Fold:
Amino acid sequence: MLLAYCFWRAWLWHLAKPASLVRALPLVICLTATPGLAHGPYTDWQRPNVGGSCCNNADCSAAADYRINGGRYEVLFQNRWIPVPPEKVLHNVENPNGNPHLCAISLQDGGVAIFCFLPPSAT
Structure:
């Protein structure tokens, strides 16, 4: 929705001759704010086993669901339950909303690469 609004403002700005600063301001705000709003808290999270960011601005989101099976976390990712390796679980990280979060991508071979998992109780 925000992206559609930004395109609409860009089109209006393009039509306006001369474009005033007041007309361009919403466009500038949209274009600079959109990436930050999408992955704000994720960019600061560090992969616990190897270091580096958990997020590349496309692979982190709230987990659809999670469960504990045999003392280990499992997350629902693309309609499949995926076991979370213990070394991928984030500890002592502030949870932005109390929900579980997962940073992962699908692999071409059908597998899943998990970068980080933040359980709902991690604080």
User: Anything to note?
Assistant: The longest strand covers residues 112-118. The CA atoms of residues 84 and 107 lie 16 Å apart. Helices lie at 2-15, 21-39.
